[in-house]
Amino acid sequence: xxxxxxxxxxxxxxxxxxxxxxxxxxxxxxxxxxxxxxxxxxxxxxxxxxxxxxxxxxxxxxxxxxxxxxxxxxxxxxxxxxxxxxxxxxxxxxxxxxxxxxxxxxxxxxxxxxxxxxxxxxxxxxxxxxxxxxxxxxxxxxxxxxxxxxxxxxxxxxxxxxxxxxxxxxxxxxxxxxxxxxxxxxx
Length: 187
Known about the structure:
The protein is mainly alpha-helical. It has helices at 5-9, 21-32, 50-54, 75-90, 104-108, 114-132, 137-154, 159-167, 169-183, and strands at residues 40-41, 47-48, 93-94, 101-102. Strand 3 (93-94) and strand 4 form a beta hairpin.
């Protein structure tokens, strides 16, 4: 069915049994005014009262600068997050046909200078998280040393990326942190 020029320029009148676009919009807006035909059900199967929909998103807001953006995590959750990020950075993938593991640190590091700065910043954030967990200065200093070696050698094109894949500074840092945590008494 092709449309004539008149149909394109002038709005089409609804055929019998069809609702016009205006009628549809009126009925859609009426849904939020409490004139819905049936109950409004949320994703958990509870009925929503129409007057709560009138409020809309008035109560929905973000409060930046208030607490941690990741919420209040327990010590074990923070440790699990550090380990997950370290695995993603260093050993997330396997090179097909070999047993060589690499992560996004090696991939992002292929971007000259900027890639190494990004991965070094993420590694420094992991060290900061370890310090927030209570790691002493000597553990933190060794972790910073691993990040520094990884960052400096990683700046060398291609050879630095191969070094990133083999050195795995983040996994070394997680091992250091885990060994220190295992020696601590449980509270």
